[in-house]
């Protein structure tokens, strides 16, 4: 394998109500992923806490000084890997965020992404779920370099906003990682579709990392953590139990696709444009 190729591991963690147990399981699986050759490892959305607005304040921690983050930093260093810390509820200045951190092999914080698009729905008599009642939105695009490639980050609902992924591609990202917990309706219909769509629109690798399914939880996640290549092909996919999904990322495939179907150079930027309004 060329030095720019690498093995990615997605940890479809079983998340329960005991925070230290969640973190402990995550650390053990990170070690397993490393033993099995991963250089980049990612955890799911909300991996130290059950998913739900009523849990966020109880489970929230400081980033990067909280205990969960400190354990992630240590794990990245001990295993000599790039570690994408799924997401945790973050508390900062009295505000809560849904936050993904990325750590380098020296234990350094490489990036901090606060979920940009908050999920609010209210269908009377059916379902009400308002993240914005408890969470604040981030306003930053978040990407970082590894020796293998540039990685962009989004969280769950962020995956539905194609402009964000397009901008990451324009910024040079070759892999986008979205920790996310789709539900039992949107999961089967949209999870793989959106991952493959973002991969195909932007000709890059996509990884979606879900928690494992807990049937009696308040929020039942679809699972199916998935890696898609720049052709839109599913390279690896979990079912719903706790497991690690492995994928060998070959970046020459990305260059081949971009040469074979040159959409980025043939886009008609003279008649339309996608641009970032903030830095
Ligand atoms: C982080 O690790 C330490 C040492 O093992 C442990 O005491 C602590 O509970 C862990 N933090 C969390 C949030 O689980
Ligand atoms: C939570 O998990 C930790 C680590 O596995 C364990 O030591 C502790 O006893 C658990 N707490 C409860 C209340 O079950
Ligand atoms: C984290 O801790 C360091 C060292 O104590 C401090 O300088 C920094 O401000 C803290 N960061 C946050 C976000 O609290
Ligand atoms: C987001 O961007 C603003 C402006 O560049 C910066 O002040 C802030 O620290 C960033 N927040 C995070 C979480 O990176
Ligand atoms: C999942 O979320 C969708 C979109 O908000 C909603 O329409 C649906 O009822 C939810 N499904 C379940 C099983 O909660």
From TrEMBL:
Residues 6-251 form the CN hydrolase domain. The keyword DNA-binding does not apply. Its EC number is 3.5.1.3. It comes from Gryllus longicercus. GO terms for cellular component: mitochondrion. One of its GO terms (biological process) is glutamine metabolic process. GO terms for molecular function: omega-amidase activity. Gene3D superfamilies: Carbon-nitrogen hydrolase. Keywords: Hydrolase. InterPro entries: C-N_Hydrolase, C-N_Hydrolase_sf, Nit1/2_C-N_Hydrolase. This is omega-amidase. It catalyses: 2-oxoglutaramate + H2O = 2-oxoglutarate + NH4(+); 2-oxosuccinamate + H2O = oxaloacetate + NH4(+). The lineage of its organism: Eukaryota, Metazoa, Ecdysozoa, Arthropoda, Hexapoda.
């Amino acid at each position: 394998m060329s030095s720019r190729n690498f093995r990615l591991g997605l940890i479809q963690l079983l998340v329960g109500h005991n925070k230290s147990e969640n973190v402990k399981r995550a650390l053990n699986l990170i070690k397993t992923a490393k033993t099995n050759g991963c250089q980049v490892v990612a955890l799911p959305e909300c991996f130290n806490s059950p998913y739900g607005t009523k849990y966020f304040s109880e489970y929230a921690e400081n980033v990067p000084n909280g205990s969960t983050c400190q354990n992630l930093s240590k794990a990245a260093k001990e295993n000599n890997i790039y570690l994408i810390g799924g997401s945790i509820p973050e508390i900062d200045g009295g505000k809560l965020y849904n936050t993904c951190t990325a750590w380098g092999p020296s234990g350094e914080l490489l990036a901090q992404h606060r979920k940009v698009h908050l999920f609010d729905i209210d269908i009377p008599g059916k379902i009400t779920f308002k993240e914005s009642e408890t969470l604040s939105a981030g306003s930053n695009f978040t990407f970082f370099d590894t020796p293998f490639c540039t990685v962009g980050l989004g969280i769950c609902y962020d995956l539905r906003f194609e402009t964000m992924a397009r901008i990451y591609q324009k910024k040079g990202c070759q892999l986008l990682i979205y920790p996310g917990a789709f539900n039992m309706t949107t999961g089967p219909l949209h999870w793989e579709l959106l991952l493959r769509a973002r991969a195909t629109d932007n000709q890059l690798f996509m990884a979606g990392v879900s928690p494992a399914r807990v049937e009696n939880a308040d929020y039942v996640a679809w699972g199916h953590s998935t890696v898609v290549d720049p052709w839109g092909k599913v390279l690896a996919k979990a079912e719903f139990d706790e497991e690690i999904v492995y994928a060998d990322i070959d970046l020459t495939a990305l260059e081949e696709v971009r040469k074979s179907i040159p959409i980025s150079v043939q886009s008609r930027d003279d008649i339309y444009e996608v641009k970032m309004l903030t830095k």
